[in-house]
Amino acid sequence: MRSARPHRSPKTVLVRATAFAATLVAAVACSRTPMPGVQPAPATSMSAAAPTPDPRVGLKAGLFDAGEAAWNLRLISTTPAPKDFLGVTNSDLAFIGKYAIQGNYNGFMVWDISNPARPSLKKSFLCPASQSDVSVYGNLLFVSAEGTSGRLDCGTQGVTDTVSQERMRGIRIFDATDITNPKYITNVQTCRGSHTHTVVSDPKDAGNVYIYVSGSSRVRSPSELPGCSGLAPDEDPNSALFRIEVIKVPLAHPEQAAIVSSPRIFNDLTAPPRHAEVLDSAARARAAARAAAGPPAGAPRPGANPGGNRNAGPTQCHDITVYPAIGLAGGACGGYGLLLDISNVANPVRIGAVADSNFSFWHSATFSNDGSKILFTDEWGGGSAPRCRSTDKMEWGADALFTLVDKQMTFKSYYKMPAPQTAYENCVAHNGSLIPIPGREVMVQAWYQGGISIFDWTNVEKPIEIAYHDRGPIDATKLVSGGSWSVYWYNGSIVSSEIARGLDIYELTPSYYLSQNEIDAAKSVHLDQLNTQEQPKLVWPATFSLARAYLDQLERDRGQAPDRITAARADLLAAERMSGAARAAALSTLSTRLHTEARGARDAPKAHALASAVGELATAK
Q: Buried-most residue among 409, 444, 475, 525 (CB within 10 A)?
C-alpha cells in the first residue's frame, strides 16, 4: 500500500465547463466569515447553478492521490489510520467532547478533532471483530462484534473452532471515563452477534441506558451460547430469528448489563415486493458459485423458510434510529422500513411498516428534526457493488422519503447522489445525519465511493443536492472497497469515516443554498456527545446569526417583501450595536413589529420564526 503523509490540505480538482461556473467556484472559495457588525452579501448574490459537466465524472484513480471534486464544501484534512488499522475497513463514528471514536474491523480509534485541520490520534485499541460499530453514553463506550473470528480477549489470532467459548459476538462495554485510555469492563453475548446497535436513553429511567442490538449473521450453536435456536418461531418459541435484543445497562454497575427482552418486531410480515434486478456477468457467476456450494453451516434445512412460511418477511433489522424526543424509532429491516413505538424503551412495538419494490435492502433511517418526515436508505448490493453507474436506475440504492402524520408513513419521493460512478467504485446510499440549519432539513450522507452528498429535503417531494465531495476510484482496473462509510455533522465540522483512507474532515462554504449566517447558526448548536442512531432534538440558542439566517431564507425563497427584509436587517444591525437595556428594548420592539408583518408574509411561519428569534435575543443573557 502506498505510504501517506499523516495530514494534508488537499488540492481540489474542479472541472469547469463555463466561465459562469468558474465565477461561482471563485465566489465560494473566496468567501470569508464577516467581521462582527458587518452583514454578508445576501444569499441570492450567488448562483444556484451546479458545475456543468459534473466534475465528479471521470476523476483520476488513486488511493491518496485520486482526483477530487468539490462544490460548496471544503475538505480540510485527511488522516490515515495507524499501522494496525491501515488497510482494514473503517466503519462507523461516535463523538464525545472533542473526540471522534472511529470503528474499524480491527477495533477502534480515538481522535482529538479540536483542530479539524490536524486531528491527532489519542488511542488505537486493537480488538478485532467486525463491524466494530461504536456508541458512547456518559462514561461508557459500546462496540459491536459480529464476525466469528472475534475473541473475548481481543486477541488477533482469531477463533478456528466451529464451537468455542473464546468467541465474542455481541456488545463489548468499556469504561471510557478517560476516553483516551478505555478499559474493557464486560460484554453481552447474543445469538446472532451485533452487526449494528443503537443506544437508547429513557427519560423515565435515569439509572439505566438501553441498547437495541441488530444481528444479521447466522444463529450460533447452542453449544457455544445456551438458548440459541435457528428454528422457525412456530417450531421453537425461543427462536433467535424474527427479533432484536434489548440490553439494559445499569449506569452505576455496567458490569451487570444483560438482555432484558427480545421483541419480535417482524412477526406476521410477508416477503416484500422485489424489483426485477438485472444481474451482470460477475453477479451471475457469484450466484452460481453460491448455488454450487450449497447452504452455509447452520443455515435452515433445504426447502425450509425461517418462520415456517415461504413468503415470510425479514428476520432481522440492519439498523434502528431512535428519536426519543418523539417516542418513535425507524427500523431499516432488510425488506421493510418499520416505525416503532419506543415509549416503553425496553419493549419497542411495531406500529407501521412500508415496503418498496425499488428497494433491495433497507439499511438506515433519519427523522426530520420536527418529526414530520422520515428517510430510509437502501444499501442495494450490500455496499460492495457499483450501484451508481449510468445504467443503474436512480430509484435503486437511493433514499426513500416519507411524510409522518399521525404515526402513518406516506411515500413522497426518492433521492440519490446524481453523479454517475464507474464500475470500479462501490456506491450506494449509506450513513448520514442532519446538519442543524435552522428552519430547514439539510442532510449530509455517505455514498461509499460515490463520495458525500449534502441535500435539502425540506420539500419532501423535491429533494435537491446543494454540496458534495468525491474522489476517483481507488483502482482504475478493478473494484477495491473504499469511500465514505458514514459522515456526520458534529459541533461545526463534518466528519467522515473513509473505509480505505482514514478520517476526513470537511467544512461548509457559503453558497446560494447556504448563507454564512445559516452556517454560523448551525455552528451555534453544541452537543456534548453524539450517536447518530440516537437522534437528538436540535435546538438553536438565541444568536444574531440565527435571526439573520431566517432573513436570508426569506430572501432566498421570496417569503417576505424585499423592503421589509432590508428594513429588518438594518434594525437588527442597529440593535446589535447597542448594549444592555437599550439593546433589549430595541429587539423587543423589532420582534413585535416582525410578528405583525409576518401575518401578511408569503411564508408566514418562517417570518414568525424570525420574529421569535429576535424576541429570544431580547431576553437572552
A: 444
CATH of the domain at 203: 2.130.10.10
Q: What is the DSSP string of 323-355?
A: ETTTTEEEEEEBTEEEEEE-SSTTS-EEEEEE-
Residue 559 structural domain: 544-619
Q: What angle do CA 70, 381, 212 make, to 5 degrees?
A: 90
Residues 457 and 574 in one domain: no
pLDDT tens for 312-358 read 788 889 999 999 999 999 999 989 999 999 999 999 999 999 999 99
Cβ atoms 223, 202 nearer than 8 A: no
The C-alpha cell that represents 425 in the structure block:
467504485
- Cα–Cα distance list, 420 to 55, 272, 408 (Å): 11, 28, 34
Contact 210/127 with Cβ under 8 angstroms?
Answer: no
Domain boundary (508, 530, 552) is at 530
Which residue, of 464, 496, 530, is where some domain finishes? 530
Residues 470 and 56 sit within 8 Å (Cβ to Cβ): yes
For residue 588, give the amino acid letter.
S
Output the 3-class SS for 582-612.
Answer: HHHHHHHHHHHHHHHHHCCCCCHHHHHHHHH
Domain count, the chain: 2
pLDDT digits (tens, 9 = 90+) for 57-78: 999 999 999 999 999 999 999 9
Same domain, 385 and 346: yes
